[in-house]
Amino acid sequence: MTRIETGYRPGAIGRITELHGRYYSEEWGFEQQFECEVARELAEFVARYDEASNGLWLARADDEVLGSIVIDGDRSETDSAGARLRWFILAPAAQGEGLGQQLMDREMTFCQKIGFERVYLWTFDGLDAAKHLYEQHGFELVEEQPDDEWGPEVTHQQFEVLL
Asked: CA 2 from chain center: how many Å?
């Protein structure tokens, strides 16, 4: 049975990185630079992880990480009142079980409890299931820009919700 756990567990950096690397390579043609960036930034986040201002939730079954979502409350790009949603992913085997909804619910409850005024995220056009979950939680598209940083060109999108 899959469960949602709060906080870091050994191996999570590698598994979250692997989930991102495989999915975005196979489905979108992203090059290794993307996986390297995920690994580097995720390791930096975990090194400074503090539950007072950051959230990390893992979907796990039989001690295997099947998904994740992160709230980075320390590194707002635009103001100190915001938190950044990052590394939201589910393994294909874990999709369709409502785990994405549960992860989103956990992070939104956390953000409200902490008192963040806004939550934002960067994604790109074409990730329709994730976009649907974001919109269900009140996120709205605020910016779009083309980018080919990881290989194929995609349209990066910034979504935000005011709390």
From this structure: 18
Q: Give the tens place of pLDDT for each residue, 10-30.
A: 999 999 999 999 999 999 999
CA distances from 136 to 18, 104, 158 (A): 27, 10, 16
The answer on pLDDT for 79 being more than 70 is no
Distances (CA, A) of 47 to 13, 41, 50, 54, 66: 11, 10, 9, 12, 21
Instruction: For residue 89, give the CATH number of its domain.
Output: 3.40.630.30
Under DSSP, the state recorded for 137 is T
pLDDT digits (tens, 9 = 90+) for 27-42: 999 999 999 999 999 9
Number of domains the chain contains: 1
Enter the pTM of the model: 0.92
Beta-strand relationship, 154-162 and 3-6: unpaired
Q: What is the span of the domain harbouring residue 54?
A: 3-115
Residue 122: how many other CB atoms lie within 10 Å: 15
Extract the tokens encoding 34: 């993307």
In a domain, 155, yes or no: no
pLDDT of residue 77: 54
Angle between helices 99-114 and 128-136 (to 10 degrees): 40
